[in-house]
Specification:
Layout lengths: L5 E7 L14 E2 L2 E2 L5 H8 L5 H6 L22 E6 L7 H8 L17 H11 L13 H15 L3 E3 L5 E7 L5 H14 L9 E8 L6 E2 L4 E4 L7 H7 L4 E4 L2 H4 L7 E2 L6 H12 L7 E7 L1 H7 L4 H21 L4 E6 L18 E6 L7 E2 L3 E2 L2 H10 L16
Parallel strand pairs: 1-12, 1-13, 4-15, 4-16, 6-7, 10-11, 10-12
Antiparallel strand pairs: 2-3, 4-14, 5-6, 7-8, 7-9, 13-14
């Protein structure tokens, strides 16, 4: 018998809460991550209005320095703590995979100086198209098409670029490179980058339309991911026919493995919240697990070092929490966390190696408190124990502490 009928895990992508103990081993723009603090630095530079997260107990998460403008509640409604990463990475896939029970000791490769010439030549030979070398570096997805879209319209060359994540992205104007051709190229690139020396986490097709100065990306995006390197708790749930609903890019992150209900991509954080609420209201979703990623924090604001945009996005999410609560059943559990940091006040555009917050809320709670500081995989161990399925060898359940 499950303690909670349904568990809903929401990942605020990149919203870390302070440098991890091993942050000195991770470098961002030749500066180690020891001073990174996504939540803290945003609170110091933007007026956060997060009454709902505060009520759960956000300000009580163990920290050396209090979050500015986030008050401790007179009556806390949930349980909170922070979690440390064990895996050797600070990217989306590593974080999510560890949250679901894996320990990734061989990190995905990132390419801060762009992709090597031998890989580009293989893609050119297969596709019959030249690649714009000047775009081959970490780039904003909208900036890269603004800068090189006009050239692609004239020459038909491929726009290949990367980011701080282990991704290879191919932008293609649909009038020049049809979707079917773009997908075929991406599928080939996926096939030759599965292992060393590349081992790229995701290949992403990025189609767009429009004219110079007015390019817009379309809904034809498609991700070609790696499958998890081991058995996750998602697999355990799926193998016992427990519903697993994926909202946003979760299905891509796990390459569909262990997911039996993909609710699709979402265009924004708020669209992701809308989709989550729709999922919670599904008549046949009476038991099981939902897993949501809200990516705007990371993609739109963290990498672009936009403190104001990031802060507004946090406030906007907090304002939607009452709607999520209203869609939850009396015996549902909501877990809110992150997957890494992306401090918008830090040098460069890379992720930051940080603790992640964990906030737990349920209408069934009669008590509240601060849980011991744990590890990412504690979340998967808790989910596994609740639904009576096999956990992985990583993580310790905190289910018995939620009362």
């Amino acid at each position: 018998m499950s303690k909670f009928n349904r568990i809903h895990l929401v990942v605020m992508d990149s919203v870390g809460i302070g440098a991890a103990p091993d942050a000195n081993e991770f470098f961002n723009h030749d500066v180690d991550d020891t001073k990174s603090d996504t939540w803290g630095h945003i609170s110091e530079n933007f007026e956060l209005k997060v009454p709902n997260l505060a009520k759960i107990g956000l300000a009580n998460i163990p920290r050396d320095k209090a979050l500015v403008g986030v008050e401790k509640p007179s009556k806390q409604t949930g349980y909170v703590t922070k979690l440390q990463e064990i895996s050797r990475g600070k990217d989306t896939m590593t974080g999510h995979w560890e949250i679901m029970g894996l320990n990734i000791q061989v990190p995905f490769r990132v390419f801060p100086n762009g992709y090597p010439e031998d890989l580009l030549e293989k893609i050119e030979t297969f596709s019959g198209r030249k690649i714009i070398r000047e775009a081959n570096k970490p780039y904003s997805g909208t900036a890269v098409i603004n800068d090189f879209g006009p050239r692609q319209l004239e020459t038909g060359e491929l726009i290949i670029y990367t980011s701080a994540d282990p991704v290879l992205q191919i932008a293609a104007h649909e009038d020049v490179i049809p979707l079917a051709e773009l997908y075929k190229i991406c599928d080939y690139v996926r096939s030759i980058t599965l292992d060393a020396p590349y081992m790229i986490g995701r290949i992403i097709a990025r189609p767009y339309v429009g004219t110079a100065g007015n390019f817009t990306r379309t809904a034809g995006r498609h991700d070609y991911a790696l499958s998890p390197f081991g058995h996750t708790v998602l697999d355990s749930l799926n193998e016992t026919n427990i519903p697993v609903y994926a909202v946003g890019k979760i299905n891509d992150i796990f390459n569909g493995v262990g997911i039996n209900h993909d609710m699709g991509h979402t265009a924004s954080n708020m669209a992701g919240v809308d989709r989550l609420i729709e999922t919670l209201k599904l008549a046949d979703f009476t038991h099981g697990f939902s897993f949501t990623n809200l990516v705007d924090f990371d993609a739109l604001f963290g990498h672009r070092r936009d403190v104001v945009g990031y802060g507004k996005a946090i406030n906007d999410f907090d304002a939607r929490l009452p709607e999520i609560y209203a869609a939850m059943g009396d015996s549902d559990l909501l877990l809110i966390t992150a997957d890494h940091g992306n401090d918008p006040t830090y040098p460069g555009t890379d992720h930051t190696r940080e603790y992640i917050p964990l906030l737990a809320y349920s209408k069934a709670f009669k008590e509240n408190g601060v849980l011991p500081v744990g590890h990412y995989a504690d979340i998967s161990a808790t989910i596994a124990e609740n639904f009576g399925v096999s956990a992985t060898e990583n993580g310790e359940s905190f289910l018995d502490k939620l009362n």
